[in-house]
Amino acid sequence: MKCAPFLALSIFANPAFAQAPPCDGTYELFSGKITTDVMPGNTLPDADRIARAFNNREGLAGQVIRKPQSEGLHEVKVSQCGRQFVLSQNGQNMLFRQSATDETLYVAQDIGTQKAELTFRVYGHASMIGRMAGEVQGFSFDYPAAMEPRSLAMPDMEGCQGENLSDSDIDMAKSAAAQGLAMALADQGKTAAQGYTLSDYVMTSAKDSGRESSWLHLGETGRILPVKPHEDSLERICALGETGLLDPPRVRLNFKQREVDGEIYVFAQVIDIETGIVREQRETVAASTSATDRAEAMSAVMAQLDTPVGATSGGYSQ
Prior knowledge:
Elements: E1 24-31, E2 35-38, H1 47-56, H2 60-64, E3 69-79, E4 84-89, E5 92-98, E6 105-108, E7 116-123, E8 127-136, E9 139-153, H3 176-187, E10 203-206, E11 211-218, E12 224-225, H4 234-240, E13 251-260, E14 263-272, E15 278-286, H5 291-303
Antiparallel strand pairs: 1-3, 1-9, 2-9, 3-4, 4-5, 5-6, 6-7, 7-8, 8-9, 10-11, 11-12, 11-13, 13-14, 14-15
Protein name: DUF4412 domain-containing protein
Keywords: Signal
Organism: Maritalea myrionectae
């Protein structure tokens, strides 16, 4: 396997998972321009001129030194809860282990010399930038590399810390209005996106007059958006293949609730967030102030809306 390094690569958000492993999958490895410098104590005559000629690819150096190029497709397989991965090509394997001081940095364990080190740093679980640095005969060298994803898969993280909460959980510490809306989503057959619970989609407020509101935000395609999207997550990037672009909220699906003589009047409003215009409104009455009865009322009034309410999302465009 050719372990060569770099080509410019766009870098995005830092990994959110505690141990920042890369995704399993197929990556294309790119090598970059190797450079050298004279080390202190180098007594070779014309050492500076040799280094300059090497870096400028003068004469014979320009013909024999490898140019930045693709080194072909390589497979990455993560194990040990993200603490290591194996890079392989054509039956040849190289083990990388996670640095004890930097969880995004992985160090090759055997490159055939003690005078150099090959490392890759993981960005956003799906891209890696690396370098081989070391010394030879009085010269230091720096050989950069990059790996870009071509096909990704979720690594086996079973039994590791950082697992997601159950999609069906509803936060019972929230108000009855918020609980009711989360339960109404469940009644509508909605399930939370991976890594979220239904309560993560519900916003709420209350006023002294006894009026309460709970609401949802819908994205451009009508998908229900979480209150706060998670940062780049291992599951979202590796398993779902979602991009890193936030889906902007376009519509507020608002449920105004007011208690009158022991009953809860529920008003569902579809509000354009940009203009503040109420596109449509429906109303019904809940049998009591309980979250269960509120949920039944909100589910019923939601079904009457002309505005389509899509599935839940992780907050990112696909």
